[in-house]
Design goal:
The structure holds two protein chains of two kinds. Chain A is an alpha+beta fold. Chain A is 38% helix and 20% strand. Chain A has a seven-stranded antiparallel sheet, with helices on both faces. By secondary structure, chain B is an all-alpha fold.
Chain lengths: 277, 189
Amino acid sequence: MSTSAHPGEQLVDFVDGRLDEGAASTIRGHLAACDACRAIHADLVAAQSAAVRLRVGVAMPADLLASVTRALDAEAAPTRATAPPRDLTSTRDLTRPRARVRWPLWAGATAAAVVLAFVLLGPRDVVLDLPAQAARDLEAVGSRTLPLDAQVSDAAALERYFAASAGPRVRVIDLAMMNIVLEGGVRHTLDGRQSALYSYRTPSGARLVCQMYEGRLADLPPPGDVREQNGFRFQIYTRGAVTLVFWQEGELVCVLASELPADEVIALAVAKAMAPA
Amino acid sequence: MTDERRARFDTEALVHLGAVYGAAYRLTRDADRARDLSQDAMLRAWRAFGTYTPGTNARAWLLRIVYSIFVNDYHRDRRAPATQSIEALEMQHGFEPVSPAAPVPDPWQPEGWTEPAVREALDALPDDFRTAVLLVDVEELSYEEAAVVMDCAVGTVRSRLFRARRLLGASLRALAPAQRRVITKSEAP
């Protein structure tokens, strides 16, 4: 047991790298000799590591931006009403609702940029990890922010579409036997990698999105859970309400994402994973 | 002038609406209240936009507004979930200011934890302590920025983080066997 003073709250500075090398070295020395402080340190590190998992974006209600914009418009309106007319010679009908003429073109462009920023940056202004991006893609398909270029329900036809377009050659998983209907697909980019994305609907209306891209499972962040089955390793992530199951098929990484119960998403992935011919 | 101000607000503040909503949701733990809080925060930010210094951390500035409204209007709402005091939680886990005589738990790793399990453990903490974790570990603010948001001293942020993380770690560790049982059960054919 160390006889030096216990660092107490200074341990949190140590964990967060806020100490200079001298102070950090003193704490490292203390930790090497003090079981109690080492246990506290382990809890602090584990808690921080766990809390970091909550960094994934919370899905913003689809209409919140419009709602806030309207509220801002209303807030700004009195100021504008007292402003002098821009063109006193204008024959514009002053009884016309102001909302239609309030913003010049550049303001529309700004609004578009704001929307684009949400699409590109997601709910947070930080780079999302790949599973979080795949979860966001599921939401984008549902909100039609990410339209499906090829709207076909036949897996073979969609495979031909992907084969004819640039990007990795992929198979399209057929879930028709499970009454899960293919909606269509699109060539997409997932975390900077070309992917083939396709979407399904279940009889209850739930959506599943599958993406395949060239890569390695090992490049993904640490998973929340791992299943080894049928010679495949399934890495499972939860991002918001979305369960994502990743597995490797040859050069391709496949991911199945859905808000369905996790066990159902995992079972589908396990049932449909297929080694390349 | 107003149009220019609005355009600047859109590009510097409104682009953070998603982050504002995320922070509001984590604070309130309720989608409807998070929505109201986000909208209130953006309107107050618009009114106070003259006090924002361009080029500084706009997200931290917005989070300060979110937190201020939360503390003043929402946090005192009786709908807020009740939590035990930090002292009661520490006592529950057998913490002492310095506990060299306490049994040393086995080394453990947080791997395998799901986001809901972490959120549940975090939600059990009193708001001031939960907020310190949210601002520093989730929102990635510095202690100094978190202190401004919470309107407290940097030392208070450190103290809250220490106690909050220690409790969070202990809670997750204590829950570990139960979580493993759940996973095992779901894996059963």
